[in-house]
Design a protein that fits this description.
Radius of gyration: 22 Å
Oligomer: single chain
Number of strands: 7
Helix content: 40-55%
Strand content: 25-35%
Order of helices and strands: EHHEEEEHEE
Strand order of the largest sheet: 5-4-3-7-6
Shape: elongated
Length: 154
């Protein structure tokens, strides 16, 4: 895993990590303690639920730690505005069907395909990243191949 993230993304991940390691862990430990006091753990649904919550929280903690430690952090302030990068907007044309759209290239954490916020790690994002207005790129997606022209960087 080597995600491209902004300083803001890292800050949000770190905040969630801190919360999960302190507050959330303590809440779950308290739930487990209360549930364990109800008797036989083998048939105690509350205890089993608390254990499941503990595992889910620990899995999320591991994920967050991995995301933070393996991220490539980009400086969104000092970027070349003539090429597509993180937080760049562009007007593009899907050549095969002559359809135009405005997209924003974002980090994986900020992607929102419904609003055309495209991750730089998606097939389209990879093809557009680092390109300039006027470039025509071929996008190779699972089971599909299409051409996109960058009309303008906004």
């Amino acid at each position: 895993m080597n995600n491209t993230l902004t300083e803001e993304n890292i800050k949000k991940l770190q905040e969630e990590l801190d919360y999960r390691m302190t507050v959330k862990r303590a809440e779950i430990a308290k739930e487990k303690l209360i549930a364990a006091a109800h008797g036989d753990r083998s048939e105690n649904a509350e205890y089993k639920e608390a254990c499941r919550n503990y595992r889910e929280n620990d899995n999320r903690i591991q994920y967050l730690m991995t995301m933070i430690s393996t991220a490539t952090v980009i400086d969104s302030e000092n970027v070349d505005k003539t090429v597509l990068g993180i937080n760049s907007k562009a007007k593009i044309k899907f050549v095969e069907d002559n359809d135009e759209d405005v997209i924003t290239l974002v980090t994986t954490l900020d992607m929102d395909p419904e609003n055309m916020c495209i991750s730089v790690e998606s097939d389209l994002g990879k093809a557009l990243y680092g390109k300039k207005a006027g470039d025509v790129v071929e996008v190779i997606a699972p089971g599909d191949k299409y051409t996109v022209e960058i009309l303008e960087i906004l």
